[in-house]
Amino acid sequence: MKDMQAELRKLMDQRHMTGAYRQTIAKAVADPEVQAFLAANQAALAPDAVDRGAAKIYEFVNERNKRAAGEASFAPGYQPQLVVANGQLDLAYEPTQARVAAEAKAAQRALVKAINMPKAIATASLANYDPTGRDEALDAATDFTLAVAQAPHAYHQGLYLTGPFGVGKTYLLGAIANQLAKQGIASTLLHVPTYAVEMKGAIQTNSVLAKINAIKKAPVLMLDDIGAEALSPWFRDEVLGIILQYRMQEEMPTLFSSNKTMAELTRYLAGSERGDNEALKASRLMERIKFLAKEIAVGGNDRRNG
């Protein structure tokens, strides 16, 4: 059996090479990183591995140098690696650290499903949330995310964030969703007033049930701005009622934000006439909300216009 080092010396000996191609191959084989790989894997390589794998060596060095120079490479986002396969040299392309990080970030973003929500929630963070006047809300949000992380399959009562317009309730929901995503937990954020309008349109397309089912089974559901929708007994009973009843029975984490306190939302859902029947239906819905979430006041100044 031929000695591999002897074969390597033969390949690199310019007297055995003709033309620019041979010189290019010899230069690639002489590359320090290639030499280190060959030395580390000498026992696993066949004696003729360098000769037969010369093109692989050249491709490795060429693609590596392109990446180092910032030039377009054969496989953007992937880096070449020399490997041994059945005693011969081969080339594998592995994702770069940057690509791995980008894919992880994309996967994390995919865990947050935002429906008709402001773009700002995409970058919302508990770490950047100003606690001035709303430290209780921040503490409650932090405790909630920690509890879910520690026991993701257990029931955790959510939050009902109430406070004036512009104090950061929606942002806080987004920050909670993003923190949960870092922990590998999916959530859905839904702007209730817009959803109410869309559900009326769904009646015409006979897609009400499908839309309800798509929302009610979210691992973590966040209903933003509840109580700001136009009052509709149908939406209250046949949409919100079904969603919240399901989540209460299945003990699924649910959060809310509203400009109304729970007491104010109760009166609103009962309607202006407040007949006994409507008041009873409103109370039933509120019982589900109270089971699912605890009321937390969000204070501070108007961050949007202040």
Automatic annotation (TrEMBL):
It holds the Pfam family IstB_IS21. InterPro entries: AAA+_ATPase, DnaI_N, IstB_ATP-bd, P-loop_NTPase. Residues 155-295 form the AAA+ ATPase domain. It comes from the Bacteria. CDD domains: AAA. This is Primosomal protein DnaI. The gene is dnaI.
